[in-house]
Amino acid sequence: MSRHVIVGLSGGVDSAVAALRLIEAGDRVEGLFMFNWAEDEAGRCQAAEDFEAAREVADVLGIPLHRADFSAEYRQRVFQPFVDGYAAGRTPNPDVLCNREVKFDPFLNHARRLGADCIATGHYARVEVDGPGWRLRRGVDPGKDQSYFLAAVPQAALGRTLFPLGDLYKHDVRELARAAGLPNHARRDSTGVCFIGERDFDGFLAGYVDTEPGPIRVADGPLAGTDIGRHRGLAFHTIGQRRGLGIGGVRGAPDAPWFVVDKNMTDSVLWVSQNADHPALRPRLVDTAAPQWIGPAPRLPLTCRVQVRYRQTDQPCVVTARSDGLRLTFDTPPFAAAPGQYAVFYDDDICLGCAEIDTLPAQATEAA
Protein backbone atom coordinates (compact mmCIF):
# COMPACT_ATOMS: atom_id res chain seq x y z
CA MET A 1 0.00 0.00 0.00
CA SER A 2 1.37 3.37 -1.05
CA ARG A 3 2.18 5.78 1.76
CA HIS A 4 2.22 9.55 1.68
CA VAL A 5 5.68 10.44 2.98
CA ILE A 6 7.26 13.83 3.64
CA VAL A 7 11.05 13.58 3.44
CA GLY A 8 13.21 16.12 5.23
CA LEU A 9 15.39 17.27 2.32
CA SER A 10 18.49 19.02 3.67
CA GLY A 11 20.37 19.47 0.42
CA GLY A 12 22.72 16.61 1.25
CA VAL A 13 23.09 13.30 -0.56
CA ASP A 14 21.68 11.20 2.31
CA SER A 15 18.23 12.77 2.41
CA ALA A 16 18.17 12.83 -1.41
CA VAL A 17 18.71 9.08 -1.62
CA ALA A 18 16.18 8.52 1.16
CA ALA A 19 13.59 10.21 -1.05
CA LEU A 20 14.79 8.26 -4.10
CA ARG A 21 14.38 4.88 -2.36
CA LEU A 22 10.86 5.71 -1.20
CA ILE A 23 9.84 6.77 -4.71
CA GLU A 24 11.25 3.52 -6.08
CA ALA A 25 9.26 1.64 -3.43
CA GLY A 26 6.05 3.16 -4.77
CA ASP A 27 5.38 5.73 -2.05
CA ARG A 28 3.92 9.17 -2.74
CA VAL A 29 6.81 11.39 -1.75
CA GLU A 30 7.13 15.10 -1.11
CA GLY A 31 10.08 17.04 0.27
CA LEU A 32 10.30 19.54 3.09
CA PHE A 33 13.24 21.88 3.65
CA MET A 34 13.53 23.10 7.24
CA PHE A 35 14.91 26.54 8.01
CA ASN A 36 16.23 26.01 11.53
CA TRP A 37 18.50 29.00 11.83
CA ALA A 38 17.90 32.57 10.66
CA GLU A 39 20.67 34.26 8.69
CA ASP A 40 23.02 36.02 11.10
CA GLU A 41 24.52 39.47 10.73
CA ALA A 42 27.51 38.06 8.86
CA GLY A 43 25.32 36.05 6.49
CA ARG A 44 27.38 32.95 7.21
CA CYS A 45 24.59 30.39 7.62
CA GLN A 46 24.39 28.14 4.56
CA ALA A 47 20.60 27.79 4.54
CA ALA A 48 20.21 29.46 1.14
CA GLU A 49 22.85 27.23 -0.47
CA ASP A 50 21.36 24.12 1.13
CA PHE A 51 17.84 25.04 -0.01
CA GLU A 52 19.04 25.47 -3.59
CA ALA A 53 20.65 22.02 -3.45
CA ALA A 54 17.41 20.53 -2.07
CA ARG A 55 15.39 22.26 -4.79
CA GLU A 56 17.62 20.80 -7.51
CA VAL A 57 17.17 17.32 -6.02
CA ALA A 58 13.38 17.74 -5.88
CA ASP A 59 13.34 18.85 -9.53
CA VAL A 60 15.29 15.77 -10.64
CA LEU A 61 13.08 13.46 -8.59
CA GLY A 62 9.93 15.21 -9.78
CA ILE A 63 8.51 15.83 -6.31
CA PRO A 64 7.09 18.96 -4.66
CA LEU A 65 9.34 20.77 -2.17
CA HIS A 66 7.80 22.58 0.78
CA ARG A 67 9.55 25.01 3.09
CA ALA A 68 9.01 25.49 6.81
CA ASP A 69 10.62 27.92 9.22
CA PHE A 70 11.37 26.28 12.58
CA SER A 71 14.00 28.83 13.60
CA ALA A 72 11.97 30.10 16.59
CA GLU A 73 11.59 26.57 17.96
CA TYR A 74 15.25 25.86 17.25
CA ARG A 75 16.50 28.96 19.05
CA GLN A 76 14.34 28.34 22.12
CA ARG A 77 14.61 24.57 22.41
CA VAL A 78 18.07 23.81 21.00
CA PHE A 79 20.26 26.90 20.76
CA GLN A 80 19.44 28.43 24.16
CA PRO A 81 20.11 25.18 26.08
CA PHE A 82 23.34 24.90 24.05
CA VAL A 83 24.47 28.37 25.17
CA ASP A 84 23.35 27.82 28.76
CA GLY A 85 25.24 24.53 28.90
CA TYR A 86 28.51 26.03 27.77
CA ALA A 87 28.07 28.96 30.17
CA ALA A 88 27.74 26.41 33.00
CA GLY A 89 30.95 24.63 32.00
CA ARG A 90 29.25 21.68 30.32
CA THR A 91 29.69 20.22 26.81
CA PRO A 92 26.16 20.10 25.38
CA ASN A 93 25.17 18.00 22.38
CA PRO A 94 22.78 20.06 20.21
CA ASP A 95 22.29 17.25 17.68
CA VAL A 96 20.44 15.10 20.22
CA LEU A 97 18.25 18.06 21.17
CA CYS A 98 17.65 19.03 17.54
CA ASN A 99 16.29 15.59 16.73
CA ARG A 100 14.04 15.44 19.77
CA GLU A 101 12.87 19.06 19.79
CA VAL A 102 12.68 19.99 16.10
CA LYS A 103 13.11 17.24 13.51
CA PHE A 104 10.76 14.80 15.21
CA ASP A 105 8.31 17.26 16.76
CA PRO A 106 7.53 20.43 14.72
CA PHE A 107 8.61 18.65 11.53
CA LEU A 108 6.39 15.65 12.21
CA ASN A 109 3.44 17.86 13.16
CA HIS A 110 3.90 20.01 10.04
CA ALA A 111 4.02 16.92 7.84
CA ARG A 112 0.80 15.62 9.41
CA ARG A 113 -0.87 18.95 8.58
CA LEU A 114 0.24 18.42 4.97
CA GLY A 115 -1.62 15.11 5.02
CA ALA A 116 1.38 12.81 5.34
CA ASP A 117 1.14 9.34 6.84
CA CYS A 118 4.74 9.51 8.02
CA ILE A 119 8.04 11.33 7.65
CA ALA A 120 11.47 10.17 6.52
CA THR A 121 15.03 11.39 6.98
CA GLY A 122 18.48 10.43 5.77
CA HIS A 123 19.67 9.16 9.15
CA TYR A 124 21.63 5.91 9.23
CA ALA A 125 19.42 3.98 11.65
CA ARG A 126 16.57 1.46 11.60
CA VAL A 127 13.11 1.33 13.17
CA GLU A 128 11.24 -1.94 13.66
CA VAL A 129 7.89 -2.93 15.08
CA ASP A 130 8.29 -4.30 18.59
CA GLY A 131 4.98 -5.72 19.80
CA PRO A 132 2.62 -2.77 20.29
CA GLY A 133 5.48 -0.27 19.87
CA TRP A 134 8.67 0.32 17.95
CA ARG A 135 12.35 -0.05 18.59
CA LEU A 136 15.37 1.83 17.29
CA ARG A 137 18.36 -0.12 15.97
CA ARG A 138 21.78 0.90 14.79
CA GLY A 139 22.36 1.43 11.08
CA VAL A 140 24.28 -1.39 9.40
CA ASP A 141 27.17 0.94 8.48
CA PRO A 142 29.19 1.18 11.71
CA GLY A 143 31.02 4.23 10.42
CA LYS A 144 27.80 6.18 9.83
CA ASP A 145 25.37 4.80 12.43
CA GLN A 146 23.40 7.75 13.89
CA SER A 147 21.25 6.00 16.47
CA TYR A 148 23.28 7.86 19.13
CA PHE A 149 21.72 11.15 17.98
CA LEU A 150 18.22 9.65 17.83
CA ALA A 151 18.20 8.14 21.32
CA ALA A 152 15.98 10.89 22.78
CA VAL A 153 13.28 10.69 20.08
CA PRO A 154 10.01 9.43 21.61
CA GLN A 155 8.73 6.05 20.51
CA ALA A 156 5.50 7.57 19.18
CA ALA A 157 7.54 9.72 16.76
CA LEU A 158 9.68 6.76 15.72
CA GLY A 159 6.49 4.91 14.83
CA ARG A 160 5.75 7.54 12.18
CA THR A 161 9.32 7.79 10.86
CA LEU A 162 11.13 5.96 8.06
CA PHE A 163 14.91 5.66 7.77
CA PRO A 164 15.43 4.38 4.20
CA LEU A 165 19.23 4.36 4.54
CA GLY A 166 19.42 2.17 7.63
CA ASP A 167 20.46 -0.91 5.65
CA LEU A 168 23.00 0.86 3.42
CA TYR A 169 26.65 1.82 3.60
CA LYS A 170 27.67 5.37 2.74
CA HIS A 171 29.52 4.35 -0.43
CA ASP A 172 26.35 2.61 -1.65
CA VAL A 173 24.34 5.79 -1.02
CA ARG A 174 26.69 7.87 -3.15
CA GLU A 175 26.63 5.27 -5.91
CA LEU A 176 22.81 5.22 -5.93
CA ALA A 177 22.79 9.02 -6.13
CA ARG A 178 25.29 9.03 -8.99
CA ALA A 179 23.39 6.36 -10.93
CA ALA A 180 20.14 8.30 -10.52
CA GLY A 181 21.73 11.50 -11.77
CA LEU A 182 21.20 13.38 -8.53
CA PRO A 183 23.11 16.67 -8.73
CA ASN A 184 24.46 16.43 -5.19
CA HIS A 185 25.87 12.87 -5.44
CA ALA A 186 29.40 14.12 -4.72
CA ARG A 187 28.49 16.96 -2.35
CA ARG A 188 30.60 17.01 0.78
CA ASP A 189 28.91 15.90 4.00
CA SER A 190 27.99 18.76 6.30
CA THR A 191 29.96 19.09 9.52
CA GLY A 192 29.22 20.85 12.77
CA VAL A 193 26.02 22.50 13.87
CA CYS A 194 23.95 24.67 11.50
CA PHE A 195 24.46 27.87 13.48
CA ILE A 196 28.24 27.39 13.55
CA GLY A 197 28.94 25.63 10.27
CA GLU A 198 32.52 25.90 9.05
CA ARG A 199 33.40 29.04 11.03
CA ASP A 200 35.67 29.31 14.07
CA PHE A 201 33.85 27.69 17.00
CA ASP A 202 35.56 29.72 19.73
CA GLY A 203 34.89 33.00 17.94
CA PHE A 204 31.21 32.16 17.52
CA LEU A 205 30.77 31.01 21.11
CA ALA A 206 32.45 34.14 22.48
CA GLY A 207 29.60 36.20 21.01
CA TYR A 208 27.05 34.43 23.22
CA VAL A 209 28.85 33.26 26.37
CA ASP A 210 30.65 35.45 28.89
CA THR A 211 34.14 34.07 29.36
CA GLU A 212 36.75 34.69 32.04
CA PRO A 213 40.44 33.90 31.45
CA GLY A 214 42.26 31.88 34.06
CA PRO A 215 45.23 29.65 34.79
CA ILE A 216 46.00 26.30 33.21
CA ARG A 217 47.15 24.19 36.15
CA VAL A 218 48.80 20.77 36.31
CA ALA A 219 46.64 18.20 38.08
CA ASP A 220 49.15 15.49 38.96
CA GLY A 221 52.76 14.33 38.84
CA PRO A 222 55.89 16.24 39.86
CA LEU A 223 54.43 19.55 38.63
CA ALA A 224 51.07 19.16 40.40
CA GLY A 225 49.63 22.54 41.28
CA THR A 226 51.91 24.44 38.87
CA ASP A 227 50.41 27.00 36.49
CA ILE A 228 51.77 26.41 32.99
CA GLY A 229 49.65 28.77 30.91
CA ARG A 230 46.47 30.81 30.57
CA HIS A 231 43.16 29.93 28.95
CA ARG A 232 40.70 32.38 27.35
CA GLY A 233 37.66 30.87 29.04
CA LEU A 234 36.53 27.50 30.37
CA ALA A 235 33.65 27.40 27.89
CA PHE A 236 36.15 26.83 25.09
CA HIS A 237 37.40 23.56 26.59
CA THR A 238 36.01 20.10 27.25
CA ILE A 239 37.11 17.04 29.18
CA GLY A 240 39.64 15.02 27.18
CA GLN A 241 40.63 17.90 24.88
CA ARG A 242 44.29 17.80 23.78
CA ARG A 243 44.42 20.34 20.95
CA GLY A 244 44.09 24.10 21.11
CA LEU A 245 45.37 24.47 24.67
CA GLY A 246 48.23 26.76 23.71
CA ILE A 247 50.71 24.89 25.91
CA GLY A 248 54.22 24.73 24.48
CA GLY A 249 57.20 22.99 25.98
CA VAL A 250 56.98 22.92 29.77
CA ARG A 251 60.22 22.76 31.78
CA GLY A 252 60.34 19.60 33.87
CA ALA A 253 57.57 17.87 31.84
CA PRO A 254 58.01 15.23 29.14
CA ASP A 255 57.38 16.04 25.49
CA ALA A 256 53.90 14.49 25.51
CA PRO A 257 50.32 15.74 24.93
CA TRP A 258 48.37 17.54 27.65
CA PHE A 259 44.73 16.63 28.28
CA VAL A 260 41.98 18.65 29.96
CA VAL A 261 40.89 16.65 33.02
CA ASP A 262 38.71 19.12 34.93
CA LYS A 263 37.25 22.63 34.88
CA ASN A 264 36.75 24.58 38.10
CA MET A 265 34.04 27.14 37.42
CA THR A 266 34.47 28.80 40.82
CA ASP A 267 38.01 30.06 40.32
CA SER A 268 38.25 29.57 36.53
CA VAL A 269 41.05 26.97 36.70
CA LEU A 270 41.58 24.60 33.80
CA TRP A 271 43.21 21.40 35.11
CA VAL A 272 45.41 19.42 32.73
CA SER A 273 47.46 16.23 32.81
CA GLN A 274 49.79 14.28 30.56
CA ASN A 275 48.38 11.02 31.90
CA ALA A 276 45.97 9.66 29.28
CA ASP A 277 44.71 7.24 31.95
CA HIS A 278 44.02 9.91 34.55
CA PRO A 279 40.93 8.89 36.62
CA ALA A 280 39.07 12.00 35.43
CA LEU A 281 39.58 10.92 31.81
CA ARG A 282 38.45 7.35 32.40
CA PRO A 283 35.85 7.47 35.19
CA ARG A 284 34.39 4.17 36.35
CA LEU A 285 31.36 5.99 37.77
CA VAL A 286 29.16 8.40 35.81
CA ASP A 287 26.00 10.02 37.18
CA THR A 288 23.26 11.14 34.80
CA ALA A 289 20.06 13.12 34.85
CA ALA A 290 16.71 11.35 34.52
CA PRO A 291 16.75 8.92 31.56
CA GLN A 292 14.59 9.00 28.46
CA TRP A 293 13.70 5.42 27.52
CA ILE A 294 12.44 4.70 24.02
CA GLY A 295 10.22 1.84 25.17
CA PRO A 296 8.99 0.83 28.62
CA ALA A 297 11.51 1.62 31.34
CA PRO A 298 13.68 -1.43 31.97
CA ARG A 299 14.03 -2.96 35.40
CA LEU A 300 17.07 -1.68 37.28
CA PRO A 301 19.81 -2.62 37.86
CA LEU A 302 20.37 -3.11 34.16
CA THR A 303 23.41 -4.65 32.49
CA CYS A 304 23.86 -3.24 28.99
CA ARG A 305 26.35 -1.36 26.82
CA VAL A 306 26.73 2.41 27.00
CA GLN A 307 28.19 4.91 24.55
CA VAL A 308 29.17 8.30 26.03
CA ARG A 309 30.19 10.13 22.84
CA TYR A 310 29.41 9.80 19.15
CA ARG A 311 31.89 7.52 17.34
CA GLN A 312 33.15 6.03 20.60
CA THR A 313 32.85 2.30 21.16
CA ASP A 314 30.10 1.36 23.60
CA GLN A 315 31.26 -0.26 26.83
CA PRO A 316 29.69 -2.84 29.18
CA CYS A 317 28.00 -1.10 32.08
CA VAL A 318 25.73 -1.68 35.06
CA VAL A 319 22.99 0.94 35.32
CA THR A 320 21.43 1.60 38.73
CA ALA A 321 18.94 4.15 39.99
CA ARG A 322 19.73 7.16 42.12
CA SER A 323 17.37 9.78 43.52
CA ASP A 324 17.26 12.06 40.47
CA GLY A 325 18.80 9.98 37.72
CA LEU A 326 21.09 7.04 37.08
CA ARG A 327 24.53 5.85 38.12
CA LEU A 328 26.62 4.07 35.50
CA THR A 329 29.37 1.71 36.66
CA PHE A 330 31.90 0.62 34.04
CA ASP A 331 34.38 -2.24 34.13
CA THR A 332 36.33 -0.61 31.30
CA PRO A 333 35.95 3.15 31.77
CA PRO A 334 35.14 5.12 28.60
CA PHE A 335 37.40 7.98 27.59
CA ALA A 336 36.42 11.56 28.37
CA ALA A 337 32.82 11.28 29.53
CA ALA A 338 31.79 14.93 29.84
CA PRO A 339 28.85 16.58 31.63
CA GLY A 340 26.36 17.75 29.00
CA GLN A 341 27.06 14.89 26.61
CA TYR A 342 24.70 11.91 26.44
CA ALA A 343 25.06 8.37 27.68
CA VAL A 344 23.19 6.18 25.20
CA PHE A 345 22.14 2.66 26.21
CA TYR A 346 22.25 -0.39 23.92
CA ASP A 347 21.20 -4.01 24.07
CA ASP A 348 23.29 -5.43 21.24
CA ASP A 349 22.29 -3.09 18.35
CA ILE A 350 18.98 -2.00 19.90
CA CYS A 351 19.01 1.53 21.30
CA LEU A 352 17.16 1.60 24.63
CA GLY A 353 17.31 5.35 25.27
CA CYS A 354 19.64 7.91 26.78
CA ALA A 355 20.40 10.20 29.70
CA GLU A 356 22.39 13.42 29.87
CA ILE A 357 25.66 13.06 31.75
CA ASP A 358 25.44 15.14 34.92
CA THR A 359 28.50 14.58 37.09
CA LEU A 360 31.55 12.34 37.30
CA PRO A 361 31.74 11.37 40.96
CA ALA A 362 35.01 9.51 40.49
CA GLN A 363 36.82 12.49 39.00
CA ALA A 364 39.01 14.48 41.35
CA THR A 365 42.27 16.13 40.43
CA GLU A 366 45.06 15.40 42.85
CA ALA A 367 45.66 19.10 43.33
CA ALA A 368 42.02 20.26 43.44
UniProtKB/TrEMBL annotation:
The active site is at 98 (nucleophile), 194 (cysteine persulfide intermediate). The record marks 123, 341 as: Interaction with tRNA. Gene3D superfamilies: Adenine nucleotide alpha hydrolases-like domains (2.30.30.280), HUPs (3.40.50.620), Translation factors (2.40.30.10). Residues 289-357 form the tRNA-specific 2-thiouridylase MnmA-like C-terminal domain. Residues 204-274 form the tRNA-specific 2-thiouridylase MnmA-like central domain. CDD domains: MnmA_TRMU-like. Keywords: ATP-binding, Cytoplasm, Disulfide bond, Nucleotide-binding, RNA-binding, Transferase, tRNA processing, tRNA-binding. Its main location: cytoplasm. GO terms for molecular function: tRNA-uridine 2-sulfurtransferase activity. It is found in: Cytoplasm. It is an enzyme of class 2 (transferase). Residues 93-95 are annotated as: Interaction with target base in tRNA. Pfam families: tRNA_Me_trans, tRNA_Me_trans_C, tRNA_Me_trans_M. InterPro entries: MnmA-like, MnmA-like_C, MnmA-like_central, MnmA-like_central_sf, Rossmann-like_a/b/a_fold. Residues 144-146, 309-310 are annotated as: Interaction with tRNA. It catalyses: S-sulfanyl-L-cysteinyl-[protein] + uridine(34) in tRNA + AH2 + ATP = 2-thiouridine(34) in tRNA + L-cysteinyl-[protein] + A + AMP + diphosphate + H(+). ATP binds at residues 8-15, 34, 122. SUPFAM superfamilies: Adenine nucleotide alpha hydrolases-like. Signal peptide: none annotated. Its EC number is 2.8.1.13. Belongs to the MnmA/TRMU family. Catalyzes the 2-thiolation of uridine at the wobble position (U34) of tRNA, leading to the formation of s(2)U34. This is tRNA-specific 2-thiouridylase MnmA. It comes from Spectribacter hydrogenoxidans. The lineage of its organism: Bacteria, Pseudomonadati, Pseudomonadota, Gammaproteobacteria, Salinisphaerales.
